[in-house]
């Protein structure tokens, strides 16, 4: 008699949301006040307290938070902004929103975060800002970045889309620079479906961002349809429609309450992956740093291709055949048609980013993963690495 072996399929991502989030969203819907309101303000207050920032301003997405940060820094069309080449296009596209040029910077081989030495080489008279991205949730070397920024008088806008909660030398990401942008997109460590948050300790920047996220209308614009608001408002600038809704904020409040617990669950999965994969010759586990705490938004495994008879793409399809979905973070920006045609970037210009890109894949890592699923990932990855070992 043959026994049928059940294959476990593991999706790349499942959001860690449940009944509590559904209830919180339903309450807002039943209340009749759906858009930005008291829940959004409460989410901002609790988020600011959680990361330890003076101001937290809730917006429609991480991209909106990055855009508003550059707007508050008064980036102009003739300016240049340093952006790591290994990131999601949002980091570069917001520079284009300002009419400015994203100057791409190569990455370090270990963390795949922006390489400060390469950034220094690319600084010109037009450089006004730098956007370090904490890739996968591992904080950048902020001391190095701040030293460069103060030497050349650059604004520092942190892209912390992956980095909640993460810390650098014991200090939470969100409190380290002029502005920090978080994302609450569906796959992120805290999700509201879509959403984002900008944090800053600077009162003037906070004031500007609050105005610009809601049409450039003066203070408390959101109240204009509420009982204690007034119908009268004044438009101070051509702002954006970037506010968060109370439905999203209600979900965010529940998620924030579980943030430490969710982070601990990711950390446990990362430790289990580390234990097995660090002993597999064809695999390189993510770099860790004693002065930084990762959020473990992503677990980026790298392949020692010289030890394997297959490439990364085939490794991914072999995992798929074994029921495991993976992803790649990220296709370096200069390899995309837009960055090539708009700014003349070419393949071969960012050797480190390219060398890491062809050997990187991201494994499933999310709090709702069961033991069976974690073991299935470990078994499949080990099996592919062993089967195709040269
Ligand atoms: C590094 C990075 N920056 C910015 C963003 C943009 O965030 P959002 O999707 O919330 O606009 C994302 C991802 O989604 C990202 O991965």
Description:
The protein is α/β, with parallel strands linked by helices and 390 residues long. 37% of the residues lie in helices and 13% in strands. It contains 13 helices and 13 strands. The protein has helices at residues 19-31, 38-51, 62-72, 89-97, 116-121, 142-152, 203-212, 246-257, 259-277, 312-321, 337-343, 351-357, 371-387, and strands spanning 55-59, 80-84, 101-105, 127-130, 155-159, 167-168, 171-172, 179-183, 196-200, 283-284, 292-293, 299-303, 360-363. The strands form 3 sheets. The protein has a 7-stranded mixed sheet with strand order 1-9-8-5-4-2-3, sandwiched between helices. A 3-stranded antiparallel sheet has the order 7-6-11, with no helix packed on it. It has a 3-stranded antiparallel sheet with strand order 10-12-13, with no helix packed on it. Pyridoxal-5'-phosphate is lined by residues 61-63, 87-88, 90-91, 133, 159, 161-162, 183, 185, 196.
